[in-house]
Write a structure and sequence with these properties.
By secondary structure, the protein is α/β, with parallel strands linked by helices. The strands form four sheets. Strands 2-8-7-6-5-3-4 form a seven-stranded mixed beta sheet, with helices on both faces. β3, α4 and β4 form a beta-alpha-beta unit. α2 runs parallel beside α7. The protein is globular and about 70 Å long. It binds pyridoxal-5'-phosphate. Pyridoxal-5'-phosphate (PLP) binds next to α3.
Length: 371
């Protein structure tokens, strides 16, 4: 029996050793309340400060710009729900946290900006929307979780800055793999996508005064996010951020080569397979694979899962009623094609041997179903 293979890193990541050690240290030595002034509080505060510095370094920011939250969803909500009125422009492929938080605001109009068939924001549509009147916020993800397609952030940021509109960048999938090319007004990301534990995320900003706290009741995080800090999760997040920063360039190159090997294997051995977003810049770890006609992603996931290989689909299935992915639909992929899209996302734990095993399993499935 071979060891299980995990290739669903865009969903979440296994805990890095460094993060595991930091979580244990925070639980053993940092059990004090970081707001207390005695020795126990001081120890906890030291751990908190260290994590803040580590997370800041990963984002190329200073520690005072880091506001800890429970994850990217909360950080996004904090930014979007701070907009009280006016227009929010958001790419149609944003995470539901952006779209649903904007839709939930009473006096806010959400305008969804289209993407092209490659999955990149249409600059003409952004220009038009910015010209059409004042906007309160523009929200764009650095890279998409389903397709790995990377947005032209520098270009977007300069247009948004010229219109004097704050920019929110969801860097959740991006920052663990590559350095951000810009400093947005607000940048959000989360620990569990880069080897940290669940339950800690960050909002990076120099514009805290724009934020309307969503959790009241304590002065923590400069009064912008009440509640005693979740120190073990935050410490693990910090340690993961430091570990990622130390190895990011090398690991990104190694993982990119693995992804390309798998991509070539599948394209050569599985006639009719296609890569989604292939003409756009993509995250080096992500393979959004449209299987040949007649092979559903669900069947492929089950086939791989029986061999202890974990991957996921590009489309979500809600309570038995399958809905084609809105991200793929926005790229003009038909509903039927959406159900043939498999998302394979690699990470630091993967090896060439694993890639070969996954490639072989997919090719076997292709031969079985086409014979
Ligand atoms: N944004 C993107 C692009 C994501 O992929 C995710 C996670 O699925 C989130 C936001 C939400 O992150 P969290 O799980 O920390 O709330």
């Amino acid at each position: 029996m071979s060891a299980p293979i995990y290739m669903d890193y865009n969903a979440t990541t296994p805990l890095l050793e460094e993060a595991h050690a930091a979580v244990l240290e925070a639980m053993a030595d940092g059990w004090g309340n970081p707001s207390s002034h005695h020795w126990a509080g001081k120890k906890a505060k030291e751990i908190l400060d260290r994590a803040r510095t580590q997370v800041a370094s990963l984002a190329g920011a200073s520690p005072e710009e880091v506001l800890f939250t429970s994850g990217a969803t909360e950080a996004i909500n904090l930014v979007v729900r701070s907009v009280q009125r006016g227009r929010i422009l958001a790419s149609v492929i944003e995470h539901p946290a952006v779209l649903e938080a904007a839709e939930a605001q009473h006096d806010v109009a959400l305008e969804k900006l289209p993407v092209d068939a490659r999955g990149c924001l249409l600059m003409g549509a952004l220009d038009q929307a910015l010209d059409a009147g004042e906007s309160a916020l523009v929200a764009v993800m650095a890279a998409n979780n389903e397709t790995g397609v990377i947005q032209p952030l520098s270009d977007i940021a300069s247009r948004v800055a010229a219109a004097h509109v704050p920019l929110l960048v969801d860097a959740t999938q991006y920052i663990g793999k590559m350095a951000l090319p810009i400093h947005a007004t607000f940048t959000v990301f989360t620990g569990h996508k880069l080897g940290g534990p669940k339950g800690a995320g960050a909002l990076i900003t120099r514009e805290r005064r724009r934020l309307q706290p969503q959790i009241l009741g304590g002065g923590q995080e400069w009064g912008r996010r009440g509640g005693t800090e979740a120190l073990p999760a935050i410490a693990g997040f910090g340690a993961a951020a430091a570990a990622v920063l130390a190895t990011r360039e090398r690991e990104t190159a190694r993982i990119g080569a693995l992804r390309d090997t798998l991509q070539t294997m599948v394209l050569e051995g599985m006639p009719g397979a296609r890569i989604v977003g292939v003409n756009a810049p993509r995250l080096p770890n992500t393979l959004s694979l449209m299987l040949p006609h007649g092979i559903e992603a669900e069947a492929a996931i089950n086939h791989l899962n029986r061999q202890d290989i974990a991957v996921s689909a590009g489309s979500a299935c809600h309570s038995g009623s399958p809905t084609p992915s809105r991200v793929l639909r926005a790229m003009n992929i038909t509903p039927a094609e959406c159900f043939r899209v498999l998302r394979i996302s690699l990470g630091p734990g993967n090896t060439l041997k694993e890639v070969e095993r996954v490639g072989d399993a997919l090719l076997r499935l292709g031969r079985q179903l086409s014979s």
